[in-house]
Amino acid sequence: MLTDKLTMLGLKLEAITNPADAITGPLVLGRVLTVEKEPQKNGKVINWCSVDVGDANGTGEPQGIICGAHNFVEGDLVVVCLPGAVLPGDFVISERKTYGHLSAGMICSAAELGLGTDHDGIIVLPADAGAPGDNAFDVLGMDDPVIEFEINPDRAYALSLRGIAREAALGFGLPFADPALRETPAADGAGYPVVVEDPEACPVFVARTVSGFDPTTQTPAWMTTRLEQAGMRPISLGVDISNYVMLELGQPNHCYDKAKLAGPITVRRAAAGEQITTLDSAVRKLTEVDLLITDDNGAIGIAGVMGGEDTELSDTTTDIVVEAAHFDAVTIFRAGKRHKLHSEASKRFERGVDPLLPQAAADRVVELLVELGGAVSDPGVTLVGTPPTPVSITIPVDLPARISGIDISAETTVAHLEAVGCAVSVAGSTLTAIAPSWRPDMTDPYDPVEEVVRIVGYDQSAVGAAAGPARSRSHRGAAPASPGRAHARRCRAGRDDQLPLRRRGRLGSPRPDGGRRSPYGPAHRQPAQQRGAAARHHAAARPVEGPGPQRRARQQRRRPLRDQPGVRTDG
Q: CB atoms < 10 A from the CB of 66, how many?
């Protein structure tokens, strides 16, 4: 199974969800016929809508619905939940009187359907996605299972379809066709002018332009479905293409309205007192350490975090400048923390993005703008800077076998490192691997070992096998045999009646009253009869004994007042 393979490779399965399973009752498409805006006494403006839902309501008459969102207009195709339906969280939809009207149903957002977390607006579908009354489950792809993974911070490449597909190919031993390996036009200096004043923070910047884009073209249904399944709200074709390419390849990018740009694009640090209005309409005061994207009028984006409102795409945009750049991970992380602003782009940049991706990503965005939006790719490609030099790591060929205790041949080691993208060369008993551009986490001699062992399978390690000489605790992830490992061996041998061991380095800390805090939290400080059956079983199987001589000595050192009269020392 795919999820099993990916979990064994280190991409922990978080959940497999099917949004349709959490919804019962009629969920259909509707065409908005009229929208009447009605201001309320509390300052809120609601929309009294008439919506055509076909014959789904049993009468064929338009449905009257109250809606508080404002990202739709008359004629839009929306998703309507009719009375009698139940949404995720046991939210029952019924006909009820509100704001002076009898509202019969609800126009739905992605969050309300369990398709994401976006509550800011309702789902607006392409005009040709279906007809009023059609089943919305099929149109939205809600019957397709969605797999969620817990991605470790050092695996930014897995925050993309490209990265997940690469891991799946590893798991099944199949060849991988990299979508980023595409023919791109050579940089010629004739594209939109770009100046990078801080090459360490921005080593690569690519700019492409298109003209004749039709801003009225709607995003195709297949793209909106994929964006919604990934938890993103479709906005407009230009923005949706930018987001889709980020999800597809893992390279954040940005589209500017060329008509709103003044002079060359410049990447520089902020000046004292400078500020910017970002796409979330917030005015942000900048500091001199902020890395900015600017033009002659000032800041047009916080690099790698969020673009500015002044140059965003609109319903009049016809000429677009596409940006795809590589930014220093630490710079982006600090900017996000400083401004308390975290975006899908910053999530990737602060973890480390492939520095060779910008050209391919920019070309893919241009391709989709041309294919779906009727644009024309302009001549001229701007490329400023060069990617960082890849890391070269040299290790003994037999190091993976010695560290893991698994019988791993030199041929297997080379084959698996090449499978993850390393360029490998062998000279005698040593091996040199050049880390792939999408793996900035591979910098240590033991990183290639981890790559080889995770592909071979951690389950292949012999129980209790000596894995070579003990390594120093000072190395990350390396430690001599611990009580936790001994406990694991006892469990595998069937001796699972042992009490759970205390967490690493937490033998219990003093309480103010002289007792000991449990390393497991309040639940583990309760008497056995108040805990679950498993706890009662453990307590009965192994009566708690008093501390041994070594622990008593530690307690004496940590609690010098234990023998003084009147001081409570139990626990």
A: 21
Token duo for residue 137: 């489950």
Which three-class secondary structure string do you get for 115-129? CECCCCCECEECCCC
How far apart CA 433 and CA 454 sit, in angstroms, is: 17
Structure tokens at 342: 């975290």
pLDDT in tens, 426-475: 999 999 999 999 999 999 999 999 999 999 998 887 644 444 444 433 34
Task: Give the phi and the psi of residue 32 in degrees, each rounded to 5.
Answer: -75, 120
CB atoms within 10 A of CB 129: 21
Is pTM, for the whole model, over 0.70? yes
| Gap between the Cα atoms of 96 and 80, Å rounded | 15
Of 449, 446, 471, the closest CA to residue 458 belongs to 449
What does the DSSP 8-state code read for residue 495? -
**Cα gap 164→179, rounded to integer Å:** 12
Edge-to-edge, what's the strand order for the sheet holding 306-307? 194-196, 265-269, 291-295, 298-302, 306-307
Q: What gap in Å lies between CA 11 and CA 154, rounded to an integer?
A: 11
Q: CA–CA separation, 116 vs 113, rounded Å?
A: 8
Which region, left, alpha or beta, applies to residue 248 given φ > 0 means left and ψ of -120 to 50 means alpha?
Answer: alpha
Lowest mean pLDDT among 67-71, 166-170, 482-486: 482-486
Sign of CA dihedral 236, 239, 241, 244: negative
Angle of the 446-456 helix axis to the 410-419 helix axis, nearest 10: 90
Residue 348, CA distances (Å) to 148, 336, 399, 432 in order: 17, 12, 32, 28
Give me the mean pLDDT over the 394-414 stretch.
94
Rounded-to-integer distance, Cα 165 and Cα 179, Å: 10
Q: Which residue has the tokens 């390419």?
A: 245
How far, in Å, CA of 122 to CA of 118, rounded?
A: 9
d(CA 413, CA 397): 7
Give per-residue pLDDT as tens, 139-163: 888 878 889 998 988 899 999 999 9
Three-state DSSP at 500 gives coil
Task: Choose among 388, 381, 405, 408: nearest CA to 397.
Answer: 408
CA 444 to chain centre: 25
Q: Quick one: DSSP state of residue 153? A: T
Strand partners, 103: 96
Amino acid at 172: F
| The two three-digit tokens of residue 185, written as one number | 């036009």
Single-letter residue type at 207: A
Nearest to 105 by CA among 55, 132, 67: 67
DSSP code, position 187: P
Q: Which residues contact 338 (CB under 8 A, 6 or more apart)?
A: 287, 289, 290
* Residues with Cβ within 8 Å of residue 209, at least 6 apart in sequence: 191, 192, 258, 319, 320, 321, 322, 378, 380
Please report, as a single letter, which amino acid is at residue 213: F
Residue 14 has a CB neighbour count (10 Å cut-off) of 12
The alpha carbon of residue 49 and the mean position of all alpha carbons in its chain are separated, in whole angstroms, by 36
Give the up-direction half-sphere exposure of residue 257: CA atoms within 13 A in the CB hemisphere: 15
* Residues 103 and 64 sit within 8 Å (Cβ to Cβ): yes
